[in-house]
Amino acid sequence: MAMNLQMDQTYDISKLIKLPPIRWHTRLILRLLTPFNILKLTIRQSLFTKQDKNPLHDGSRANLTGEKRVAMSGEFCFQAVKSASKSLGVTINDLVTAALSVALKKYFVEKKGDSKTN
Length: 118
Known about the structure:
Elements: H1 2-7, H2 24-48, H3 78-88, H4 92-112
């Protein structure tokens, strides 16, 4: 439906799904319940959500300093990467993504003792 609306030069509302009008008492009830729903969502968000456990983050946000660290590798031949991707029948992006995932897996195993990821 969205594609039909975007392909035309004019905006035709006849293509939209017809919905019955909302009655005044339904609107009133929804507006009166809004503060309670906001409170319910806030409580649910604060009480029932768990902090993510991530091998890159130990869970203590107080230790974040904002310091940025950068690591760079040595030079490598782009033609070798290009020929490897062609010989494997994959794109360069696929090859680099696979290399990055292998490197992250090794890092997680060596530094963080991660044995759950494949």
